[in-house]
Please model this.
Amino acid sequence: MPVIVKTPLRVSLFGGGTDYREYFEREGGAVLGGTIDKFIYLVCLPMSSVAETRYRLTYSKVETINTPEDVHHPVIREVLLDEGYDVPFNLAVISDIPGGSGLGSSSAFTVGFLNLVRHLKGTTPTKHDLAQAAIRVEYELLQERVGVQDQYHAAFGGFSLYEFRKQQTSISPVQMNTRLWERLNASLVMVHTKHYRSASVILEEQVKATNDGSVDNDLGMIKALAYEARDVFLTQNEDAALRELGKMLSETWKIKRSLSASISNQHLDDIYNKAMSLGAYGGKLAGAGGGGFFVFLAPDHVIPKMRETFGDDAVVKIAMQDEGSRIKEIV
Model:
């Protein structure tokens, strides 16, 4: 029976960088953001009994192999080995947005694939277990320098304030009135930089600085903005709230640029400055930096101007949504 796993990408608005163990185990971290209406889909079918190989994996590459040990894709290989799952299957990976865009796609894939494998094994993990398992795969098995917000976003879905401490994570849905929720979603827009990037170099420099405490003051200001933004969402004046949130997004971007010389460059600065000159409330680069998408809050009349300036292909309208990783069987 075919199985489809649908896992959301995310936009982190405030607090990014405070979700790394090197920081939150000392100081506590806080991230405010949510999952968007863009997804990674895993389509899995049983492998034909007459196929020449036991596994076929189709993503940016195509792998035809016979054992989990032979899989090149690191997440697929480590999850299959760690879960002890060796039943043949045919897997295709499809995404609304290419990887390397700063939207948490790597962790969304890990969460989605873990969800798939556990479903195939006949179990249904809780959202918390799914997030924790994905963190373990990335942090311990693959020894990647990763934060922990992306895995929670992908597993839980929704628009929330995530608070990270050494021994626990707490999740609080952001409270706001319906009108502000609608206005927020109407104003959210992304502009692609036309630069795809690997976050590893940027993160290595940033994690080193985080580890030695040299950016604690900057991260403390970024964390404070997450709490301030939560309070802004409680206002009854939607126009004032969006203007204030835009200013806070830009303040976050200003601080984030100081964390590493690799985060921004003249090309990225030009995109930000053009969007602001068109009338955007504010914005920041998604993810670690160096490329991918800018996320802006902008009035309705500004978004068409952004399309004219940056091109239809570069401007992507998004909205927050409440869905975490989900399984669907096709009969």
The CA atoms of residues 19 and 297 lie 23 Å apart. The chain has a mean pLDDT of 93. The domain at 3-173 is CATH 3.30.230.10 (Ribosomal Protein S5; domain 2). DSSP finds eleven helices and twelve strands in the chain.
